[in-house]
Design goal:
Number of helices: 0
Largest sheet: 10 strands, antiparallel
Oligomer: single chain
Radius of gyration: 18 Å
Shape: globular
Number of strands: 24
CATH topology: Beta-galactosidase, Chain A, domain 5
CATH class: Mainly Beta
Number of domains: 1
CATH architecture: Distorted Sandwich
Amino acid sequence: MLTLANADLRVDLLDPAAEHSRLGPRYCWGGYIWQVHDVNVGALLTGPEWPVVDPAPHNGQGLPEAFRHSTTTGEPLLWDGALGLAPGAGALGRDASGDITVTTPCTWHIELQPARIVFRTAQTVGRWSYALERTVELHGRQLRSHSRLTNRGAAALVLEWFAHPFFALQADGRLGITLPVGTTMAINQGYTLLGRELTMPRAFIGVHGGHLEQLGLPAGQPFAAEFSHPKLTDLRFATDFAPFKCVLWANGNTLSLEPFLALHLAPGESREWTLTYDFGSPKS
């Protein structure tokens, strides 16, 4: 495990070279934030299987991010026949059961500094070639995750990226969220949205009991939300880009709010973006 720490927080990140058992084709290996600890009140993040110590790689925990090789409805993006690419994880194939696997992981070069860790990788898979830099910075009670993806090949890179943060539920199994003005959501049995305030009318049960909805976000605006937290006064999450969609999902162990970014990089083109997490003060 790699670590960033200061007087307030400790951030644990997976080591992409040493912790393959916790990694797979879904999430980016470099810059994977596994847990954030407050020095006074302990672990602040959860996951779908929480508090299982070694959750399945597909589920994970903490603040993972994903470069999608296919859409959420299954349409292929970075696939050429049996060969696929998940930037930040590696070349993809399928095993005897038809499950997607990482056949050739990308190699990460890691630079550890006092307040940040920089992860760099580059890989050529089939007709695609890319470079990726991921920087995680800790300043006080603010954690920032910055990505820069560059197309180094002759073919376009067309994919989706999304953040999949796993927020801790309150003791009653629920969570409250303050969303941007103008956010909409269809009427459903999992969540209630009144104005900017989203609540959970009931707690979900276990790993498999849960609900997924899509939020309608104000067009052309970066995303920002404030969450209640069992141990902190609040937790704030923001992007510096306007998501093209945002998925809300929860089960009996966690809640995730997932902003998506569409990436279409021509040869030689780069795109960069940042996520910011502000962890409120510990509750007295």
